[in-house]
Amino acid sequence: MGPRAYRSKLRGSGPIVALVPPGALGALSLLLLRRHTSLTRGLAGFLTAVLAAPGLLVAGAPLRADNSAYLVAVVGSAALWMLVGAISARRATRLPAASWRDYWREYLWLAVGVWLGVVVALLAVNLVFGRALF
Predict the structure, then answer these.
(1) DSSP code for 97
(2) % of the chain beyond a pLDDT of 70
(3) Predicted structure pTM score
């Protein structure tokens, strides 16, 4: 397997591998929100849920009771993370000898941008609704 084949393998599996970190955050969120009795666990569970699936904010996650919108939001978020993975793979394979380390470096930069957007959106909603979320 030469560098060209390795690069094409990285580009092909990059979008699928991109679902691993949000999946882990989603699993952590489910564990935190299951039978939680404290404000800290509830807040941490909510934060990890919206970091794993940013589309939940678009669907009105804490304010809406309709569960079908959540499914659409999670599927949309998975598409977003796969797009982030594809872009990361493309950027990492610009180098002739690309590796998964290069992929994760590019992925982290893009993921931090998505996560900062989620935090800013949460802060904006918190200000608009007058501390309704926190």
Answers:
(1) T
(2) 92
(3) 0.85
